[in-house]
Amino acid sequence: MDFFIQLSVAGLVIGSVYAMIALGFVLIYKSSSVINFAQGELLLIGAFLCLWLTVDMGIPFLMSFAITLVLALGLGFAIERLFLRPMIGEPILSVIMLTIGLSIMLRGISIIIWGTDTRTFPEVFSSEPVKIGSINIPEVYLWSLLLSMIFLVAFSLFFKKTRLGIAMRATADDQTAALSMGISVKRIFALSWAIAAIVASVGGILLGNINGINISLTQFGLKVFPVVILGGLDSIPGAIVAGLMIGLLESYSGGYLDPLIGSGIKEVMPFVILMIVLMIKPYGLFGQERIERV
């Protein structure tokens, strides 16, 4: 039972980070119908920025964390303004190819500035595990889970309760109707990219504190695809639920199946479940079904 609880905690931690990264995918897709292949690179840059501020600039971690979010906000706005806005009205495939090129460019910039070696944060969290009953849980896991949940709840409230969040939802549902109501669609596109950069940076910082930071961190951008598709490309609640599901699935697969079948099953299992679900529900668990008459 203790082993199961430990796997559950680890799965919830990783799943909550997946959910945050997936939130960026969903926001950009809902507002502009574009799949952002540069999300993993935004995650890497956010993690390296926080590390640079903390280690090289000597700024306390919490202040570095806050500054990183502000810088990520600016990076998201800049990417939308410089690269995506000139592509308005162009074929969606061309815009998607642009995000692939953007991912390669951002990865190259990261390698030039920070190199390819694995770097670690200073001891931000205590190395002493937190004892809950008979279970020892690393403190970084608990803080990562708490911060992830805080950000997910905050963004959920933002979309439901604020005028700007409601404007984003209106734009996602019908851009033409949103324009007729005086909503600036270009502004909403920019805000979507800014929020995507913020949630990616938070995910990168949390993962960096758990595993260290190197170029392989960008792979989490691709690992989140099963989360996005499973929850539904246009569903924010779906991204959260699917993120937690995939995190738990990976953790249980690694804990129970890897010793029996061999290492690597935890990497494959989310895609197996994804294929099964899509054969039954092609739009994902929470995706909106679209029926087009020809």
| CATH domain topology | ABC transporter involved in vitamin B12 uptake, BtuC
Portion of residues within helices: over 70%
**Count of DSSP H/I helices:** 12
Please give the alpha-carbon distance between the first and last residues.
Answer: 55 Å
Mean pLDDT: 84
State the low-pLDDT regions, or none: none
Category by helix and strand content: mainly alpha
Q: Count of DSSP E strands?
A: 2
- Helix and strand pattern: HHHHEEHHHHHHHH
Rg over alpha carbons:
19 Å
Percent of sequence in beta strands: under 5%
Compact description:
The chain is mainly α. It has a single domain (2-121, 138-280), classed as Orthogonal Bundle (ABC transporter involved in vitamin B12 uptake, BtuC).
Please describe the topology of this protein.
Blueprint: H1 2-32, H2 39-56, H3 61-84, H4 92-114, E1 130-132, E2 135-137, H5 139-161, H6 163-173, H7 175-180, H8 185-211, H9 219-223, H10 225-231, H11 236-261, H12 265-280
Antiparallel strand pairs: 1-2
Describe what you observe in this structure.
There is one protein chain. The chain is mainly alpha-helical. It has a single domain (2-121, 138-280), classed as Orthogonal Bundle (ABC transporter involved in vitamin B12 uptake, BtuC). Helices cover 74% and strands 2% of the residues. The longest helix is centred in the N-terminal third of the chain and has 31 residues, at 2-32. The protein is globular and about 60 Å long. It starts with a helix and ends in a 14-residue tail after the last helix. 40% of the residues are buried. The model has no long low-confidence stretch (mean pLDDT 84).
